[in-house]
Design goal:
The structure holds 2 protein chains of 2 kinds. Chain A is an all-alpha fold. Helix content of chain A is 70%, strand content 2%. Chain B has 2 domains: 223 residues, P-loop containing nucleotide triphosphate hydrolases (Rossmann fold, 3-Layer(aba) Sandwich), CATH 3.40.50.300; 131 residues, abc- transporter (atp binding component) like domain (Coagulation Factor XIII, Chain A, domain 1, Distorted Sandwich). The chains are: A mainly alpha, B alpha/beta.
Chain lengths: 280, 426
């Protein structure tokens, strides 16, 4: 048997996660990410500026509605910084879930014509979202510098590096959820229509536009703590601003859930990819 | 090495997965209530729709260096087989073992993006097919030279012609380090030079470099040129495996109808035939026990037809086609009869075969009339009786090469004179 031996069995006896294959195709992941990224902003008037315009408008809208009209407190963090940061980290997660959920439908033209490790594409979506996140942190940084210079508020500069640790974690969680959904959307198209709605609902169930400490009802607190994204977002704020309600228990719980969801996602993804070309 | 054992590939036809959750829930509820599934297709028997075997019990072992052709009618399962070997879909039962990396060319230029330049697409496509970036770096000049697109390599491929697109795609695929090459009819497009280049490339890959080549083609000439072995697939079954010439003979033979008579009662007419005042009931050979004809013989047939209204100047075209459905020539008989409403006629006619080269020919019978301006108006169109021509070959006569010489034996060329030439040779 050579190193390139492939055994295809109609009823495989063991689960092959093909992670090694993804590593072998890492150059493709990279080149897909570049293409995908470039294509998204080609032939638009503002081009890559959209990367900044869109989240900024979102952040300002959140600031206006939740910060000013509803008057939700932000634990002493300047509202502008609070909402830009929250928007950034949430968009990172949401865009991974949203893109991964349609992996099969959006790439049928590749999947149907040539074999490559199917997981390469969802993995590449994480890289796209990570790049977008980093770009979106630029206005955050500018605002933080402004606040620091005017002496109003100083963020924890070390948090800018620490928060990078959260990206693999949140990325893995988003990937797990996204590919779990993708294996269902191949079979039931109408679930695809729900994805956007569920992501929006999920955002409100995560302390994005409010800090966890502002949730007064204890039963709501309990539910929001069950959400695995909560710990990441609170930790993110803790790194940057030094405030946030996060306990080692919450972190442990979220990490365990991340691993479980990712494993379930990869498992079902591998099952579906064997035959999805026959259903799509 | 490729080793396929007991492989089946099953598809469900009709509504399978409900396609939407709503339908699935509906069906599930109905089943639970013991009612009929509202989403079930009328014809399906089981709860899950009809099963259909695209491939059944396939066993095939291919050694390194073999060039294997796969032939069969449309829908026989050829492409499904290639998809299983190239891991695009999985078998329903059985196992497949593959030793070596695979280059799949089910399509040329998969994943090419119109916005990217030729060069960028080489990188994208190359890594998609499994190359490392360094490999592409090392080979890019070679790839560009092979494609012959040096001038356009920095142009977005959306401005490429389809031929250029193909050349680039093939150039990338051809430079992969792989032990197995799988090609599905990609050579059907592209000009002659390009096709020859591809064939030469694959021929060398198998004979010089010991790579395995698997190709599906409807072009028998390509199979002949390239393959050392050929399998024939018919309705999901592997019915022959061996010598290419024998395989081609078996395949072509399958598509030959050997009817001596046809009853047209249930034969569907083409959809463009809207008005059909004349109805052809049957046709048969007259005074012939088979459909084999030689040089001097004439095909003699008898037709029975009836008219639904008065038709003046009924005329008939007998259009002759080869087994690939390419038109070869047509016999036209003008004004054979005037038919009156309700009349039934028997027509006996004959046509010569002396101009046809050896081979099998299909016919189409097309009745028509002409209006005052002489325009053609078709009134009946059906597939006709096929016939085979076998010429008696004199000593020293060449076997006919259809690919280069066509199907018509042109006659009447004569040498008038041969004398010594006194023109100085340059």
């Amino acid at each position: 048997m050579s190193e390139h031996h492939v055994h295809i069995d109609a009823n495989p006896k063991r689960v092959d996660l093909q992670l090694r294959d993804v590593w072998r195709y890492r150059d493709f992941v990279w080149s897909y990410t570049r293409t995908h990224f470039a294509k998204k902003y080609k032939q638009t008037i503002l081009g890559p500026l959209w990367l900044l315009v869109n989240p900024m408008i979102n952040a300002l809208m959140n600031l206006f509605v939740f910060g000013m009209i509803a008057g939700i407190g932000t634990s002493g963090i300047p509202k502008l910084l609070f909402y830009i940061a929250g928007q950034g980290i949430w968009a990172f997660f949401a865009s991974i879930v949203g893109a991964c959920a349609f992996t099969f439908a959006a790439n049928a033209h590749l999947y149907g014509k040539v074999w490559f490790p199917r997981l390469c594409i969802p993995v590449s979506y994480i890289m796209t979202s990570a790049a977008e996140f980093l770009i979106q942190m630029v206005p955050f940084l500018l605002c933080a510098v402004y606040y620091a210079l005017t002496g109003t508020y100083v963020i924890r500069w070390s948090g800018l590096l620490l928060m990078l640790l959260l990206l693999p974690w949140l990325g893995a969680l988003g990937l797990g959820v996204g590919i779990l959904v993708s294996s269902m959307t191949t079979k039931y198209r109408d679930l695809g229509l729900l994805v956007g709605l569920v992501i929006r609902f999920w955002m409100y169930a995560t302390p994005v536009v409010y800090p966890l400490s502002e949730v007064r009802y204890s039963f709501l607190q309990k539910w929001i703590r069950l959400n695995p994204v909560t710990a990441v977002v609170e930790l993110f704020r803790h790194f940057l601003f030094g405030v946030g309600e996060v306990s080692p228990g919450m972190i442990g719980y979220s990490l365990v859930l991340t691993v479980l969801i990712l494993a379930a996602g990869i498992f079902s993804f591998n099952r579906i990819e064997r035959s999805f070309m026959d259903t799509v | 090495m490729i080793d396929i054992r007991n492989v089946d590939k099953q598809y469900r036809i009709g509504q399978i997965n409900g396609t939407t959750l709503q339908h699935e829930l509906q069906s599930w509820w109905a089943r639970k209530q013991g009612r009929d599934d509202p989403n079930r297709k009328l014809s399906s028997k089981g709860q899950y729709g009809d099963l259909f075997y695209a491939l059944k019990d396939i066993n095939l072992q291919i050694a390194p260096g073999e060039a294997v052709g796969i032939i069969g009618a449309n829908g026989a399962g050829k492409s499904t087989l290639l998809k299983l070997i190239s891991r695009i879909t999985s078998p329903t039962t059985g196992t497949i073992d593959i030793d070596g990396r695979i280059t799949t060319m089910l399509e040329v230029g998969t994943g090419f993006d119109g916005e990217l330049t030729g060069k960028e697409n080489i990188y994208f496509n190359g890594t998609l097919l499994g190359m490392r970036k360094e490999e592409v770096d090392a080979k890019i000049d070679e790839i560009i030279a092979f494609s012959g697109l040096e001038e356009f390599i920095d142009t977005p491929v959306k401005r490429y012609s389809s031929g250029m697109y193909m050349k680039l795609g093939f150039a990338v695929a051809a430079h992969l380090n792989s032990e197995i090459i799988i090609v599905d009819e990609v050579l059907a497009v592209g000009d002659n030079d390009f096709q020859n280049k591809c064939i030469r490339y694959m021929k060398e890959a198998s004979s010089l470099h010991g790579r395995t080549v698997l190709c599906v083609s409807h072009n028998m000439q390509q199979i002949r040129k390239l393959c050392t072995r050929c399998v024939v697939i018919d309705q999901g079954h592997l019915i022959f495996d061996g010598d290419p010439e024998e395989a081609i003979r078996i395949y072509l033979h399958q598509s030959i109808r050997e009817e001596l008579m046809i009853d047209y009662k249930d034969v569907a007419r083409p959809s463009w035939l809207t008005d059909q005042p004349l109805f052809l009931h049957s046709v048969c050979f007259l005074n012939h026990e088979n459909n084999l004809f030689s040089d001097a013989e004439k095909v003699c047939i008898r037709m029975v037809c009836s008219a639904a209204k008065d038709i003046m100047g009924v005329s008939l075209r007998i259009e002759i086609r080869d087994t690939f459905d390419e038109a070869i020539g047509t016999f036209i008989l003008y004004d054979i009869a005037d038919l009156h409403e309700g009349e039934k006629k028997e027509i006996v006619l004959e046509y010569p075969v002396k101009d046809f080269a050896d081979g099998v020919y299909n016919a189409v019978y097309n009745f028509f009339v002409r209006d005052e301006l002489g325009n053609n108006l078709n009134i009946e169109n059906v597939p006709g009786l096929s016939f085979q021509v076998k010429r008696i070959r004199a000593d020293g006569e060449l076997a006919w090469d259809h690919h280069y010489w066509g199907n018509i034996v042109l006659q009447g060329a004569e040498i008038l004179q041969i004398t010594d030439a006194d023109i100085p040779l340059t």
